[in-house]
Amino acid sequence: MYLFNLxxxxxxxxxxxKQINEFFNFLGVPKSISKIFAKIxxxxxxxxxxxxxxxxxANFVFRKIDITLNKIASKNSLIYxxxxxDLTFSGNKPINIISEVEKxxxxxxxxxxxxxxxxxxxxxxMYVTGLTVCDDKLSRVTKKYKNRIRMTLFNLNKKIxxxxxxxxxxFIKLEIGSLKGKINFINGIERFRANKYIxxxxxIEDNLETKEKEIFKQIYI
Length: 221
Description:
Radius of gyration: 20 Å
Shape: flat
CATH superfamily of the largest domain: Reverse transcriptase/Diguanylate cyclase domain
């Protein structure tokens, strides 16, 4: 078994409000309504991580690229899979298609994160979409991925403590939304671990609610 894994740099930021508008037009939504939908689902003219709508909209925009990459995989007797910005090609022979994949992504304004290109082969640990995959063991979320979750939880408490205005709170809410998605991902693999994170996140949301009330009183009362 061989794996080739790569990450798209700034995945959500690479998808513009114009592309979202065109997607809604494609669905048959009136142009005036499409513009409104595109406006409320983007920030600074692009998708953002943390909005519940971003993953679904990104998948629709990326669908043509998925089809093209899947054809390349089939041509080379490989299997193509994608989870958000994480692309993986797997097969029973060495994989050498990076230049072809990069050309397709660049043509659609996507860029490969050169620091996250990884090759794996049978006999060593394999990492796919944040999971450690072994032939004779169950899949597990990587230690690095879980460490990032713990660090984010810790930092959120600090950010809430230091928040001084409504804008600070909005950014914290975006980060919480993104974190929930990552914890849900872990929940499908390691439920016991995810439950611990959910309990911590619930406490953070309680702290955020208290902070919101404090800032509201300072501004409006």
